[in-house]
Amino acid sequence: MIFEARGIPTVVIGTDEFIELARLESRNRGVPELPVVTVPHPLGGIEVAEVLKKVEDAVGPVVAGLSRPRA
Q1: Domain that holds residue 12
Q2: pLDDT-based confidence at residue 7 (cuts at 50, 70, 90)
Q3: Structural domains of the chain, count
Q4: With contact defined as beta carbons under 8 Å apart, do 43 and 19 qualify?
């Protein structure tokens, strides 16, 4: 069972290539409001500095998703 469905704040993090899959799966699992944070694809095969930039850009949306009011 997904944590969010049990009341545990959850955010899915993935690359923008998989946004539609993440949204489809969250709907299929009964949590269509599950926050999804994306970073530009790819994550592998890139310089560490690029990975760190993606992380830096994602922190704010992740915190916002974890602290949003629940229905």
Answers
A1: 4-67
A2: confident
A3: 1
A4: no
